[in-house]
Amino acid sequence: MAIKWIFLDLDNTLWDFDGNAEDALNVLHDRHQLKHHTGYEVDQFVALYKDVNQAYWLRYEKGEVDKETLRTKRFTDTFELMGLPHALQPENIWQEYLDICPRMTKLMPGALECLEMLSTKFRIGILTNGFEGTQTLKLSESGIGNFVNYLQTSERVGLAKPSLDFFQWALNHANIDSKEALYIGDNINTDVRGGLNAGIRTYWYTPEIQENSIHDNIINHVLFGGIVQDLCHWSNSIVAEF
Predict the structure, then answer these.
(1) 9 and 35 housed in the same domain
(2) Contact 5, 152 (CB under 8 A)
(3) What is the pTM of this model?
(4) Strand partners, 150
(5) Which of 67, 122, 141, 179 is most buried, with most CB under 10 Å away?
(6) What distances in angstroms separate CA 91 from CA 24, 68, 140, 177, 198, one per listed residue?
(7) What's the angle, vertex CA 42, arms to CA 37 and CA 48, rounded to 5?
């Protein structure tokens, strides 16, 4: 079957989540004088927050915590670990972060050019475990939204990657068979395993070769019905086929 839709993950596949989040956290670290109150340099604060945030996202994807718990506790837990007294903890810093971060516009190298090319041949869908309002804002502020035909968030459908039903929801919306789609994402668990389990031809977007984890076939272009599409010429990054 001919490929009709290209599905892509958003964070750290197209939109530079790590870079934008770090910039937003730098703003908050300075705004609330966290070094003065805790002695934590900005890089120490960012590293600690990232660990706490990642743990909460894993729990969210498993259905163990809800959205509000994730958004607030990732900050309060970080502050507790930093030894910041409760009276000095910025009460609504989670909202400040959500006001700043999604409006930042760093993209993964070559991502916009890739979307420009793909959108001339295929319909584009973004499949993300993020929240509806936040992800919509990222698309509009960064320019990605100009090339996107469909956005599916875990919040909207009540399911999260790597759930088979999450991917089936996207196929149903597009009214296509799994063989008529291709999926690209950066996370080996939620993206690659999720896409493969749904029967979708899946590619792993990764900035470097992960030994002992990837298929032997490392490519820098993909052939679709005789049309060579340079999917992975995103700076020094590669897409590994499974």
Answers:
(1) no
(2) no
(3) 0.84
(4) 125
(5) 122
(6) 17, 14, 28, 47, 42
(7) 90
